[in-house]
Design brief:
two-stranded antiparallel ribbon; 20% strand; 9 helices
Amino acid sequence: MPETAKRRRRLYRGAEPIGRGAQILARKGSDLTAKIVLLNGVGSAGKSSIARALQTITAEPFLHVQMDAFLEMLPEALQDHTQGFAFETVWQDGKPSVVIKAGPVGRRAMQGMRHAVAAMAGQGNNLIVDDVLCDDEMSEYQALLSGFDLHVVGVFAPLAVLEAREARRADRLPGLARWQYDRVHKGNRYDLEIDTSLLRRSNAPVASNRNFGYRRS
């Protein structure tokens, strides 16, 4: 995982996307190519704050698509269940680390989210997608969204900062950030990297808007 501000904020041109499904959706749904900002980062990194602020400064309207909204669709009984998502606390360096194990219903829900994003974009909706990608989901997003104007943003912060934010939130299990930390960005290349511990979250959307040309004239 990158460890310096310079590395985190470096611009990439990214790997070439694959797949044609999204191109078909784009042609059928609208003459306008949807713009998509995909935010990937550990929980409590600041993705939702960036998304909401970015919505206020773009020239065109953007819809905010949150992973949490899809997780909340699961029945309450599957919120900590082998069929949905199971959480197991282990100890790492004397601190809790919450291992997340996705069951078949949970996996289908998250795959449905990725396909729903493509369907929304196929109807011409500009999107800011707020997700936590721990496995090979990035390649699926790239395949599904290859026909759109996609910009992928890595949202970073040091583990100590993430854990402090996590502790202040009532909706987070202590240890989620620690387990996700070495997984979320592994192998991913970004168009923009933002370290929210160095760049105020209120300024992060300005950086995204400036780099991707979505700002108001």
